[in-house]
Amino acid sequence: MNKIKILIVDDYEENTKALAGLIEAPDVDIHSTTSANEALELIEQHEFGLLLLDVQMPEMSGFELAKIIRGVKKFRSLPIIFVTAQSDSSSVIFESYKSGAVDLLFKPLDPNIVRAKVQLFVDMAQQKTLLQMHVQELERLRVEADAANIAKSQFLANMSHEIRTPLGAVLGFAELIARSLPENTETRKMSAAVERNGSLLLCLIDDILDLAKIEANKLEFERIEFDLGELLRDIHTTLSFRANEKGLCLSFKVPTEVSIRYISDPTRIKQVLLNVIGNAIKFTSVGTVEIDLSVSSELSDTGVKTDGLSVNVKDQGVGLSVAQTERLFQPFGQADSSTRRQFGGSGLGLVISRQIARAMGGDVRLLSSEPGQGSVFQIQFDIERSTSASSAEHSEIKRRESLAKDIVNTENLKGKKILVVDDSPDNLTLISLFLKGSKAEILFAKNGIEAIEQFKKHDFDLILMDVQMPGMDGHEATEEIRKLGFIKPIIALTAHAIRSEHEKCRASGCNSVLTKPINRTNLMRELNSHLR
């Protein structure tokens, strides 16, 4: 344990020596002075645990010195005990405490009282020192934990990028092979299996990335206007095929008011609903999966009309025991090992769904479950009812949505000159095959430097720009091309599925971002939106 420093201030040196002799101990380091000004200098230089201050001094009284010390913010917590030969009167006591004293010692000094009082403040100073050490240690551990979280998130983001890049080629070529073959052929079925399993792998990568964001408190949300009814229809369309494959009945009970437009993050809402309802389908072999949706409205304190979206998902599946439910919302945890063998899955879906829902003011919880009888899950979100969109705005939104869905139309590309920049030969081949038959002129570059050289030679209508490339990356190339006067669309291609990367792309001059793996549907939608 470090020694606690004590400062004795008295205009008589004999008094400082006598007092020092009384309180001398192995755990204290005593400093003394006969000057008030020198006392201020010592206090500035050292961290004292206690100040023993004489009241009557010629150049400056103890009361005046104490007030100066208390006027400096970093010295306000320094305990001061006044030592005085004045009588034990209420006026002296009042002035002492008013000046900032924590205690008084009256001359002649009683050695036992002096030692007891000083030891009390020495013990307090030692506890304060210990506490500061603990706080510093906790701060060090926090910094290390934050750094580890950042390193882990960066590692997972890089792994996501490295896996998405080759996976994009796998899924893309599988899609092209499937489109080029007749229905119901063995090769078509094998290609479909490659595409299906590649998509499952992509979902697993996204789940791991989401989990890392949750642990690092970096989960990202949007606030945009959306049509809840349309979102539910998309979910029904997506999951009906899976339910029909298993011979299950998928029943949606939806009130009419869901046609109202809301403001929230529809992508995250859809992610949670697909996860939970998809689980219900996965763990049900025979029977029905019922989705019962309700919306309750209330007026917030700020006058904003908010709605509570509640979705109950009831299945007739395997059900859960009490012991199994305790592991249900743990990362990588499933009911038991046999569940993973029989049904597959990483065990991340429910964990991520609950964290997303809670971050959006709601929750995901298990209402009831019985082995062999099925389970009931409840999903809740807070969503804000939109009041800004007029009927004309609705018409414009519908018009844009309709145009965005016109993904197979290649007329907008006819005669256009497009530059595709990517360091992966597979990606260049894949994009050229996606655009085959569009009657667009496609040129290629393997890095940012080649992209600039191509730009100087040709008048492009649009540039597809990969972000991560050796030499000059997509950000640098885009900034340089913009400086050279190119005002037409540049679409970034990135395997980093994080918002900060998308924002960086837009900041460097890109009009929009396509996240790898890129399929023909998304590519054509993006090209049409910029070239129509």
Which parts are unreliable, with pLDDT below 50 for 5 consecutive residues or more?
A: 335-343, 389-393, 403-407
CATH superfamily of the largest domain: Histidine kinase-like ATPase, C-terminal domain
Alpha-carbon distance between the two ends: 76 Å
- Helix percent reads 40-55%
**Strand content range:** 15-25%
DSSP summary, beta strand count? 17
Overall mean pLDDT score?
Answer: 83
Offer a quick outline of the entry.
With 532 residues, the protein is α/β, with parallel strands linked by helices.
Which terms would index this structure?
Rossmann fold; elongated; Heat Shock Protein 90; 532 residues; 17 helices; 5-stranded parallel β-sheet; alpha/beta; 7-stranded mixed β-sheet
Topology:
Layout: E1 4-9, H1 13-23, E2 28-33, H2 36-45, E3 50-54, H3 62-71, E4 80-84, H4 90-98, E5 103-106, H5 111-180, H6 186-215, E6 224-227, H7 228-245, E7 249-253, E8 261-264, H8 266-282, E9 288-299, E10 305-314, H9 322-325, H10 337-343, H11 349-359, E11 363-370, E12 374-385, H12 391-405, E13 417-421, H13 425-434, E14 441-445, H14 448-457, E15 462-466, H15 474-483, E16 490-494, H16 499-508, E17 512-515, H17 520-531
Parallel strand pairs: 1-2, 1-3, 3-4, 4-5, 7-9, 13-14, 13-15, 15-16, 16-17
Antiparallel strand pairs: 6-8, 8-12, 9-10, 10-12, 11-12
Helix pairs in contact: 5-6, 5-13, 6-11, 7-8, 8-11, 14-15
